[in-house]
Automatic annotation (TrEMBL):
It comes from Roseibium denhamense. It is found in: Cell inner membrane. Part of the tripartite ATP-independent periplasmic (TRAP) transport system. The complex comprises the extracytoplasmic solute receptor protein and the two transmembrane proteins. This is TRAP transporter large permease protein. Coiled coil: none annotated.
Length: 443
């Protein structure tokens, strides 16, 4: 585990901590890429603290990302892109729409469901927001939803991208803290579904309040008939998530192997269906590489920064400060949640995980919190940041798709944020939500 590699020299923080932090804030404010800002801050911290010779930083960058588990990240990203290009994602929408056609707010609920289905394959929230947004936002508006609310609904539903396994975020936090990604995937099933249900419930309540979309007047026989048609037409699309879930949870495949299998199967299905050609490969690979090229450098530069923070005593210092304020576990858990939500509002998930997990984990250990529960709580709290300004990534994605004001979308997203926060609190204070499906050894 990264945070256990080195013991702190002191918990008295000086300019070897505050200087790099100020540099990082300044660079981010100047719109310098996050990976570069983290790299500069990490290098300065390592030099000033004497934690690691600067000549070894380059070696750390490569050794930090030289992990078999990280190979799953580009594979799941590529699977999500292939899913869209083969048209299989539209089959998910057809089945979700057939499932919810009888309900008030049916197409809105279908939109949330297809976000969850997409999340169960790609593990990326931004990819889900873009893919589902292109298919549904205009239709949501035609169904009666205000455009800012339709954008907020897609942005909220896409948050499940990092919350429903397989998730890139769980792969990263597992790497940082030395926890099996497969174990985290299993623990995340119930919390991920709980978040999905909270978003569905929010949309149903909002629909009843404002009457945007009526329920379908359909008999039970007609409902099952149309559902059967949708399933018969698109059943093969569900082969991909079945392979991923069965392979990982049965122990037959590692997340990396499951991702590789999913890529091959999705592309093969595209060729069989005639929806993918060899000429599609360059654009698909470039698109996936761009997303991966944002994630991996952040991980690489965050790892030496996390080790520098551990050496100068930041995790232990944070524990000392927090326990000095209160020794009540429920208060300390609330403090961690507030830190995570605030961090999620201003920075993307990957650097938050690599930097904050080693800092907050000792506090969670100090109050006896199960380490699996801590990971689930952390990722869920950070997930809320995807629909909160100023840097809610999903808000920017759907705004870019539609041209709608980010502030208008954020205002419409408030009910979703509140419901997601309620689930986050449940996860934080009720360990069984995260540990019920785990073997006894992890409880």
């Amino acid at each position: 585990m990264l945070w256990q590699h080195m013991q702190p020299q002191t918990i008295e923080l000086g300019w070897d901590f505050y200087g790099p932090v100020l540099l990082f804030v300044l660079l981010v404010a100047l719109a310098v890429p996050v990976w570069a800002a983290i790299g500069a801050a990490a290098s300065l911290m390592l030099v000033w603290s004497g934690a690691l010779p600067l000549s070894l930083v380059g070696e750390k960058l490569f050794s930090g990302i030289d992990a078999f588990a990280l190979t799953a990240v580009p594979l799941f990203i590529l699977t999500g892109d292939a899913l869209v290009r083969t048209g299989l994602s539209r089959k998910f929408l057809d089945v979700a729409e057939a499932l919810t056609q009888f309900a008030k707010g049916g197409f809105g609920s279908a939109t949330v469901l297809v976000c969850g289905m997409f999340a169960a394959i790609s593990g990326s929230d931004a990819a889900g927001a873009a893919a589902v947004g292109r298919m549904t936002i205009d239709r949501l508006v035609e169904s009666g939803y205000p455009r800012p609310y339709a954008c907020a609904l897609v942005a909220a539903g896409a948050c499940t991208g990092i919350l429903i396994p397989p998730s890139i975020a769980y792969i990263i936090i597992g790497l940082v803290l030395g926890i099996s990604a497969s174990t985290l995937f299993l623990a995340a099933v119930i919390p991920g579904i709980a978040i999905l249900v909270s978003i569905l419930a929010t949309n149903i309540i909002m629909n009843r309040l404002y009457g945007w979309e009526g329920g379908g007047n359909i008999s039970m026989g007609e409902y099952f008939s149309q559902l059967w048609v949708a399933i018969k037409s698109g059943w093969y699309a569900f082969i991909v998530p079945i392979i991923i879930f069965y392979g990982i949870f049965s122990g037959r495949l590692t997340p990396t192997e499951a991702g590789a299998t999913a890529v091959v199967v999705t592309i093969a299905m595209g060729f069989i269906l005639g929806t993918m050609r060899l000429s599609d490969f360059p654009a698909m690979l470039v698109s996936s590489a761009k997303v991966n090229g944002v994630i991996i450098p952040i991980i690489a530069f965050s790892i030496p920064l996390a080790e520098a923070l551990a050496i100068i005593g930041v995790p232990q210092g944070f524990v000392a400060v927090a326990t000095g304020i209160s020794d009540e576990p429920w208060v300390l858990i609330m403090m961690m949640i507030l830190v995570l939500i605030a961090a999620g509002c201003v920075m993307e998930t990957t650097p938050n995980i690599v930097i904050l997990a080693p800092i907050l984990k000792p506090l969670a250990d100090n109050i006896g919190m199960n380490e699996i529960q801590f990971c689930i709580m952390m990722i869920t709290a950070l997930g809320v940041g995807f629909i909160t300004p100023p840097l809610g990534l999903n808000l920017f994605v759907v705004s870019g798709l539609t041209g709608e004001s980010i502030l208008k979308i954020a205002a419409r997203a408030v009910p979703f944020v509140l419901f997601m926060l309620a689930v986050t609190l449940l996860i934080a204070y009720v360990p069984a939500i995260s540990t019920t499906l785990l073997p006894e050894i992890y409880k």
